[in-house]
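From the thread on structure requests for the teaching lab: each student submitted one protein with a one-line request. Submission from student K.M.:

"Model Aldehyde dehydrogenase family protein from Brevibacterium epidermidis, tokens only."
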Amino acid sequence: EAWEFRTYNAGQVCNSNKRLIVMDDIYDEFVAELVKLGTGLKPGDPMSLGEGEYVPLSSRSAAETVDAQVTKAVAEGARVLVGGELGEGPAAYYAPTVLVDVPRDSQSYGEEIFGPVATVYRVSSDEEALELANDCALGLGGSVFSTDEARADRVAARLEVGMTHVNTIAAEAAEIPFGGVKRSGFGREMGPIGMGEFVNKRLHFIAK
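Reply posted by the TA:
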């Protein structure tokens, strides 16, 4: 699910899982599976996408921006395990990519990559995971995956985001509020809370 949602619509989804923070005991297996899923893919026709094919980004400039961000991250110490290739010609293709070892003191660490790039971080504890997750100027949404739901709830409660999910990347419906914190904005849309953003509420107080 992490790979599928990260590469959906060429990674151009505002609440997609941009950073994947993985516990040390499953990190190697997790990354190996991502690399397996990203190996052997080729550009496809978005109107009739076949198995093993990926879609283009919204424009050539968008693809070039992603390529420049990945190139800079590598120059700063990160590693590309699969993908990392800008398509030729005027097309807007960028190969789905797995990026690891982004230094936390690098400029790339604080940048959002709006494209099909899964940036993976290794951590050894819940506290380290939370520190890394919250060390971000953005705060739209976050997801926690665990076989221990109570533990996942505790971690999710401490994420500095507008929406949290457990054992799924995102849940969207007309009745569910949508919105973030920090530089991801303020206020909510959709759901009863979202409807409240479009009305002026008035206090009517009667003294007795």
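TA comment: The first helix runs from residue 2 to 7. Helices lie at 2-7, 24-38, 60-75, 126-134, 149-157, 191-196.
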